[in-house]
Amino acid sequence: MCSGRMMPALLIFAAVSLCCLVFGVASAFAPPQTLLLSRQTIFVSAPRTESATVLLHASSSPSDVEEEARMLRELASQLRGEVSEFQQAKDEVAAAEQEAKNKAIEQEQHIRLQYSAEVPILKSDGTTVMERVDFPPRIPGGKSHITAVQADLPLGILLGEHEAIPGAIRVDEVAAETNGDSAGVQEGDILRACTACQQTMETPTWQLLAGGIGQPKTKRFLLSTDGRPFEEVMEAVSSNRMDPEGRPVWLVLERSE
């Protein structure tokens, strides 16, 4: 037998047990939507976490998913367009820079061809090779060019000192039907260089041992006439008569256009 003091406690315990039993039965037979709603409500009320975000997206309606996909596609298309425009602008800048560089190279090559000529150059080993040599312009204004011609002696031209350009030798006259005329020398041309011949003594080793004096040898080379005295230039042109091979004289001329 329970005492009168124990009765209230037993009644409270019985009431709590009955509520738990009823709640358990109700949960077992409740529809899934109700449970999902209950769990969703708990997640929403709690701080936002990655799990809550995934659950909310998973519970979105098909129309919301399609709208979100459409917005993502539009954003991706916009980004692709911006990237394409940026790449196109970058390509245009690169093309413009390359075109400017090519024009500068072409201009430099044009100027070099304008003020240079291929002429025979004597090397240290005694051989002669054809090389392109630059001749900076002496005629002001950039309206001239360099040309190289070959002509046999006598040339049939009259040379003189240039009146306006110090240290320059000018062609004052070209006689008709002469070697110079046939080679294309023109009155007013400035003589920039010419071949010249010089005789030297070469002594082989065996002659030195035997006390020999050596043998004379004539070498031909290209001589720049810029700044040289008029008499020295005339002697250089005439020295081509000493060429044992009898080759034509090379004349490098600067001509006004």
Give a concise summary.
By secondary structure, this protein is of the alpha+beta class. The protein is built from 7 helices and 8 strands.
Write the layout of secondary structure elements.
Blueprint: H1 7-29, H2 32-45, H3 50-58, H4 62-114, E1 116-122, E2 128-134, E3 144-151, E4 157-161, E5 169-174, H5 179-183, E6 190-202, H6 205-210, E7 215-224, H7 230-238, E8 249-256
Antiparallel strand pairs: 1-2, 3-8, 4-5, 5-6, 6-7, 6-8
Name some characteristics of this structure.
257 residues, 7 helices, two-stranded antiparallel ribbon, 6-stranded antiparallel β-sheet, alpha+beta
How is this structure best described in words?
It is a single chain. This protein has 257 residues and is of the alpha+beta class. The chain is built from seven helices and eight strands. It has helices at 7-29, 32-45, 50-58, 62-114, 179-183, 205-210, 230-238, and strands at 116-122, 128-134, 144-151, 157-161, 169-174, 190-202, 215-224, 249-256. The strands form two sheets. Strands 3, 4, 5, 6, 7 and 8 form a six-stranded antiparallel β-sheet that branches. The chain has a two-stranded antiparallel sheet with strand order 1-2. Strand 4 and strand 5 form a beta hairpin.
